[in-house]
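Q: Hi! First time doing this. I have a protein sequence and I read that you can turn it into a structure. Is that right? Here it is:
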Amino acid sequence: MALSLVAGGLLPGHAGETLLTIAGAVENTNREAFNPFFDGFLKYHDKEFDKAFVFDAEALAALPQQSIRVNADTEDWPGVLSMEGPLLKDVIAAAGAEGRGLTVYALDGFGLEMNAERIAAHDWVLAMKVNGEPLGIGGLGPLWLVYDTGDRVAVEDEEKTWVWSVFYIEAE
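A: Yes, that's right. Below is the predicted 3D structure, encoded as structure tokens:
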């Protein structure tokens, strides 16, 4: 994992392409402030910040990984899926963003507001892989926010809270 000297200490860096940016109430930073030219996609989504913490695939994979089973009762759901990725709480802890709540944003602009109770209600996972295959942009990636349903089939209202194509988290 690449390391960057940030705020007087070594923090995980991002040698590869950024998959996830966490901004807002973050204690740890490993990138510069928003740049309207180089951050064109963030500008398109009106996501400006003075400080942020970013993860590439290697930095996310360096966090403890969770393997979960996910199933939903929706028309197009293909059955039980095996998913793998870090816990949301570990990701936000790495950024020093353990606050009152956050909003998780998808590439299409959808945002799921998560207060402390919603965050604590499940062991949320930012899945990087489904059935052993990495999630890609243009599909359901780069990250898919889900939780383990085990042998239970989630109802459609639950599935609607599973944000796919996650790229940005705004911490309060």
